[in-house]
Amino acid sequence: GAGVSQSPRYKVTKRGQDVALRCDPISGHVSLYWYRQALGQGPEFLTYFNYEAQQDKSGLPNDRFSAERPEGSISTLTIQRTEQRDSAMYRCASSLGVAGGSGELFFGEGSRLTVL
Amino acid sequence: DQQVKQNSPSLSVQEGRISILNCDYTNSMFDYFLWYKKYPAEGPTFLISISSIKDKNEDGRFTVFLNKSAKHLSLHIVPSQPGDSAVYFCAASAVGGTSYGKLTFGQGTILTVHP
User: Fold this and answer.
1) CA-to-CA distance for B96 and B103, rounded, in angstroms?
2) Which of A43, A98, A104 sits opposite B99 (nearest CB)?
3) Are residues B92 and B27 in contact, defined by beta-carbon separation less than 8 angstroms?
């Protein structure tokens, strides 16, 4: 499809397990963002990439969280040793890029993570 | 520390009337503001934006007003339609810093437009 694609849509895991969430951005989009959204709240910035370079990871909660975008397209957000507080909707977004951009992000439908 | 606040969790409006959604921010470094709309089971979609060099931006039925001295912005929808019923998020970024897309979002306001 033409939009941002995320998988899995739903993930239920046991505490202590590792999870990997995948994002396939809109073709040609330079920038890719990861956000986390708790119920009843707005999305919260985690990290972003321009091409394959991770530009800012200041929003990652701790070192259990990591992200990569090795070829400048698909990105993976990995959470190691999951905890119940990691349960949330994880949203990926992409945009054309920084220069001349409108700030418009195109969001995917999200990956709902539940840690038991 | 909530840097972007939407103090009204919900708003109910009659079809054809004006909807006014409000947003306050505290970070004076923010210089670009956006509104996103979200339907259930979908990701947020961009609606309208405004740069801090302007105080108003209009796009069809949607107008965003920015009052920098009060650190306040609002979204006006005229006339409101039932299809506008959704969650509306206010967002802000410090474009002069790093990235357009590193946004700080408010908590959202649920708008319901009654026929």
Assistant:
1) 13
2) A98
3) yes
